[in-house]
Amino acid sequence: MCQLLGMNCNTPTDIVFSFEGFRRRAGLTDSHSDGFGIAFFEGKGVRVFRDDKPGHNSPIADCVKQYHIKSLNVIAHIRKATQGEVNLENTHPFIREIWGENWVFAHNGNLKTLPDMSDSLCQPIGTTDSEAAFCYIAEQLKNRYRKKPTEEQIFDTIREITAELSQYGTFNFMLSNGEWLLAHCSTNLHYLTRQAPFGKAQRIDDDGVIDFSDYAKDGDKVTIISTFPLTKNEKWIKMEHGGFVFFKEGEKIREILGEAKVMEDDGTLGNRTYVAA
Amino acid sequence: MCQLLGMNCNTPTDIVFSFEGFRRRAGLTDSHSDGFGIAFFEGKGVRVFRDDKPGHNSPIADCVKQYHIKSLNVIAHIRKATQGEVNLENTHPFIREIWGENWVFAHNGNLKTLPDMSDSLCQPIGTTDSEAAFCYIAEQLKNRYRKKPTEEQIFDTIREITAELSQYGTFNFMLSNGEWLLAHCSTNLHYLTRQAPFGKAQRIDDDGVIDFSDYAKDGDKVTIISTFPLTKNEKWIKMEHGGFVFFKEGEKIREILGEAKVMEDDGTLGNRTYVAA
């Protein structure tokens, strides 16, 4: 398994405070040491840094820390390999061009099998289930819509493909085209939105403290999504199993609550699907 | 216009000596200051560093220098924008997946027009003629061969597509899939192969000196391809207009000499195409 970190905001934001806690889980506070990667959108372009070395001491991760890149959408991943060797081509996030846009994808989980893709135009380069799943999503989207459809159609189609792929195993993932960021939770994903009044936050992994009021201005909205919470004193929302959230400009603009165990009238625990627009 | 730098070798090699001369042309010894990029193959994976700042003082380029990444195939580019704004998505090299491989492409030149690609599955993300040309090559290759064909078929097909695109303007480019590196010359490309006995080389751009015998071992073959020579005291081969070279493991394994002006029997200068396998 692995861990995921994402950011979606309405103003270019430096993710280093969150990333510095997150990367400690890649060999110090946790054992996700089989490579790391981080992708920063800049307009339609992407800066991507990957290493097959542990994120906590990778020189490439030091470089990321040093340059304080600001971005509206970021996806990062620390890997604990389940399928596929530890090497660069198996390191998330993965990138593909869809409808003339960079799409960035990272996955935490394990898909035991996948649909046949031998005739797909979009082929995985490495040997992970994650990249293959992303290629399947890309192929399906391109086949169903030759031109870019509406955001609603994109969201609904990805939801449909995700339901299909989720049958095969654990499928927590984040996906972004630089305009929006979509998160799907099979088992663990948490998020929070920072906005005025900004305050202090203390990291879980090394007690590092920041006062966001020193950096942010009124109107800024910064959503952070992470496998597990990164700070001690902020309220993280745990996503439900099967839940979907679609973030844009730092705001949650669409949500599927997923399946939650609820008490039925007869007193047993059942599954119900809650859908909210 | 822009400048190109490539490396193809039979042993993982550090390109920093060449890159340090090359990047000085991005704002110091020449004016290619509209961004830079460099892609290093590592197995089937690629490390790519890009910046829309000038290569000579980009912090990302400093990071590349610092970590001495070793690779069998490298493509780098410093940009002087002709078409497309100065931003990250317009920064070479460009990457696409073809037949489950990373393909890396960089271009020096200017294509005034391009075939209609509105229905292509492979679409450019930015607004350069270069990325559009690469997408055209990728689309054609995928359409003609659903599965990866032989190297000979790849080479011949790219040659055919290149002849078509070259009608539209200047088209110096380098292309690599991590196994081989292909260079096409419209106007300016030079190369040399370093092999035993290794000696000293002195950079043109800042007089930096290296003794390759301190680093290389017998049997190593390292080919460097560059728009203009990077060293003073080595023999660079100037490619002919229309020339093609296919390098693998540091060796030239196939070459098309291109068109050279030759004296005809009647004393006039004519075009003849020389082909060598």
TrEMBL record, chains A, B:
InterPro entries: EgtC-like, GATase_2_dom, Ntn_hydrolases_N
Record key words, sorted: Glutamine amidotransferase, Transferase
Superkingdom field: Bacteria
Domain Glutamine amidotransferase type-2, first and last residues per copy: 2-277
Keyword Transferase in record: yes
Single GO MF descriptor: transferase activity
Keyword Transcription regulation: no
Protein name per UniProt: Class II glutamine amidotransferase
Native source species: Conservatibacter flavescens
